[in-house]
Amino acid sequence: MPSLTLKYAYFPGCVAQGACGELYQSTAALTKALGIELLELKKASCCGSGTFKEDSRLLEDTVNARNIALAEQLNLPLLTHCSTCQGVIGHVDERLKDFQTSDPAYLNQINGLLQKQNCSPYQGTTEVKHLLWALVTDYGLDELQKRVTRKLSGLKCAAFYGCYLLRAQKTIPYDDPYQPESMENVFRTVGATPVYYPGRTQCCGWPLSSYATDQAFQMAGNHLDEAIAAGADCLVTPCPLCHLNLDSRQPEVAKFMGHKLDLPVLHLPQLVALALGIPPKALGLDRHVVSTRSVLEKLGL
Q1: What GO molecular functions are on record for this protein (predicted)?
Q2: Inter-residue long-range contacts of 113-119, CB under 8 Å, 24+ positions, other chains counted
Q3: Could you give the number of structural domains in the chain?
Q4: Which domain holds residue 211?
Q5: Is 247 helix (H, G, I), strand (E, B) or coil?
Q6: Looking only at Cα atoms, what is the longest distance across the chain?
Q7: pLDDT value at position 4?
Q8: pLDDT for the residue 208
Q9: Do residues 37 and 8 make contact, with C-beta atoms less than 8 angstroms apart?
Q10: Residue 143 in domain
């Protein structure tokens, strides 16, 4: 175990509490097993998933300044497990920290709006960190490896980073936004074999799905085809919105592509928790649209 107890202000986001409830479930199981304490921000609001700024940048900044301020009140980093939430809230945090010196009047405007709602002001005293970064940089892969009780030997995992986790913020100090390795390093740590394919850092197509469905399906289908061709047993994603497009809509994507896909798509905490010996049902692996049975059979479960 890390020498210091890890504690975070937990921002679960909307999708993990709705359509991807298994992500919420598996994050709770994983962090409990690792001894990571999560203080859930029950009063937090939706980050907007990038849509608020289409109407008003001030709206996106104010809503997420409030979310960050809730974590600041606890004097804790804000933990996400959604790439989209990470990208949106992390980028707002970057912007507002810059504005502390470059445009204090704008920041004062935001804090004035928060004050009217009896909310604490944004101070820029914490950080926004995805679960992936917390595992790699805070908990540490050496420590994680010590907790592995069920090595995922023989399982070929293809990471699907998507775009928000890697490039929504100006900088990420934890990985290369164009040639990332953090998820592949996690795979190696739990005994799985990383599979590389061209689309692992590209958009899943979800942002297009409400108005350009065919293009969204084509994007998702291309990524799935590439991963299958590379020999993947499953995709693993750190984003529930990517999961919706790649798992929940995979039957529709397969119909659009004109051929069978059937590639299981796991949430990152599900994969890691399996290696810690947590039972599949406790991780919600029976909730997926594309059956995860082939993955579990390969692991002898």
Answers
A1: succinate dehydrogenase (quinone) activity
A2: 113/62, 114/62, 114/65, 114/66, 114/69, 117/66, 119/66, 119/69
A3: 2
A4: 148-299
A5: helix
A6: 60
A7: 60
A8: 81
A9: yes
A10: no
Provide the pLDDT for residue 173. Answer: 85
SS3 state at 233: coil
pLDDT value for 236: 98
Query: Are the C-beta atoms of residues 159 and 200 closer than 8 Å to each other?
Result: yes
pLDDT on residue 38 = 98
pLDDT score, position 2:
56
Give me the pLDDT at residue 50, please. Answer: 77
Write the CA distances from 139 to 96, 142, 157, 188, 272, integer angstroms: 28, 8, 22, 16, 13
Question: Does 185 share its domain with 214?
Answer: yes
What is the b/e burial string over 66-99, where b = at least 16 CB atoms within 10 angstroms of the residue's CB?
bbbbbbbeeebbbbbbbbbbbbbbbbbbbbbbeb
Question: In this structure, what CATH number is given to the domain that contains residue 165?
Answer: 3.40.50.11810
- Taking each helix axis from N to C end, the angle separating 21-34 and 268-275, rounded to the nearest 10 degrees, works out to 40
Could you report the average pLDDT of every consecutive run of 10 residues in the chain (301 residues)?
Answer: 79 92 97 98 91 84 97 98 95 96 96 95 97 97 97 97 90 91 98 97 86 93 98 97 95 97 98 98 97 97 91
In single-letter form, the type of residue at position 92 comes to V
| Same-domain check for residues 293 and 153 | yes
Assessment of whether the complete model's pTM goes beyond 0.90: yes
10 Å CB burial of residue 10 (0-12, 13-18, 19+) is buried
- CA atoms of 193 and 111, how far apart (whole Å): 47
Give me the half-sphere count of Cα atoms (radius 13 Å) on the Cβ side of residue 114.
23
How long a stretch of residues is the chain? 301
Q: Does 64 reside within a domain?
A: yes
